[in-house]
Specification:
This protein has one domain (19-126). It is 41% helix and 14% strand. A hairpin with a 2-residue loop joins strand 1 (60-66) and strand 2 (69-74). The protein contains 6 helices and 3 strands, in the order αααββαααβ. It starts with 18 loop residues before the first helix and ends with a strand. Strands 1-2-3 form a 3-stranded antiparallel beta sheet.
Length: 128
């Protein structure tokens, strides 16, 4: 969903389009940045960087993007080892800015922060 859209829409995106380009065009993370007083450009760049690095670990498809969220559905079942690599991409200081609030609020404090990703086979960056 782009800011000018009156509602959610389906977009055809050329296959050569990078996830970083999708994140920049849809300004993914701008909502959270504005809500939590983070720099908007830095937040969008952070999400683009993390999503690009995740693609190097496991292939996925973007199936939702707007200023408040990004959903990445993995093309095959993610493994615990891959989940560990993804978690290592995020420092404690980046978790909220990077849109992992959903996982942090449900975290039991002992299991991996992104444990739900194994079951859902998708990663959801989300700011609300």
């Amino acid at each position: 969903m782009l800011e000018s859209d009156p509602g959610h829409r389906l977009y055809e995106i050329p296959t050569q389009t990078t996830v970083a380009d999708v994140v920049r065009v849809f300004r993914v993370g701008a909502h959270g940045a504005e809500s939590y007083n983070y720099d908007v450009s830095a937040t969008v760049a952070l999400v683009a960087d993390k999503a690009t690095k995740i693609a190097e670990i496991i292939p996925y498809r973007v199936f939702f993007a707007d200023i408040a969220g990004l959903k990445l559905r993995f093309e095959r079942q993610i493994t615990p080892a891959e989940l560990k690599l993804i978690e290592a991409l995020f420092s404690e200081q980046e978790v909220m800015q990077a849109g992992l609030e959903r996982y942090l609020s449900a975290w039991d404090g002992s299991s991996p922060l992104l444990a739900p990703v194994l079951k859902e086979n998708l990663l959801h960056f989300w700011w609300d």
